[in-house]
Amino acid sequence: MHTSLRNTNSLTMTKSSIVATAAGAAAMAVLLLLLFVPSATEAAISCNDVTNDLSPCLNYLVSGSGKPPAACCSGVSTVASAASTSADKKTVCDCIKSSAGQINVNEQLAKDLPSNCGVKMSFTLSPAVDCSKIG
């Protein structure tokens, strides 16, 4: 009789262990998702991305005229597509302001860059823009 009772307790303990392990695994999966999926307030684009995408525009923005180079317009298009959330737009704006402060960018060329490339942006590319008001 003791053997039968011991087997029943062992079986009950095993079921409890399995349920606890499954619950722990589910909790861990949720935690990992929360850690690795960007939240709505985090920008998906980085300043490094913006700098790399817009680097073909540098000469044009400093001393250019006419239509920007095709590689520049491709970068503008990439940035415009990537800047879909408020956080993304603010990141792009802050990055452009920071970069423009390091070089002497023609502000009018910067403002006109998206339209000169045939790209629609929901905010102005300019060192003078107040990035905190972009939403």
SSE diagram, text form:
Blueprint: H1 2-36, H2 47-54, H3 58-63, H4 70-82, H5 86-102, H6 107-116
Helix pairs in contact: 2-4, 2-5
Helix content: 55-70%
Q: pLDDT under 50 segments (min length 5)?
A: 18-41
Number of strands: 0
**Quaternary structure classification:** single chain
Mean pLDDT: 75
Q: Give a short account of the largest sheet.
A: none
Number of H/I helices: 6
SSE pattern, N- to C-terminal: HHHHHH
What is the rounded Rg? 27 Å
Shape: globular
List keywords for this structure.
mainly alpha
Care to describe what's here?
It is a single chain. The termini are far apart. This protein has 6 helices and no strands. The model is unreliable at 18-41 (pLDDT under 50). It is mainly α and 135 residues long.
Short description, anyone?
With 135 residues, this protein is mostly helical. The protein has helices spanning 2-36, 47-54, 58-63, 70-82, 86-102, 107-116.
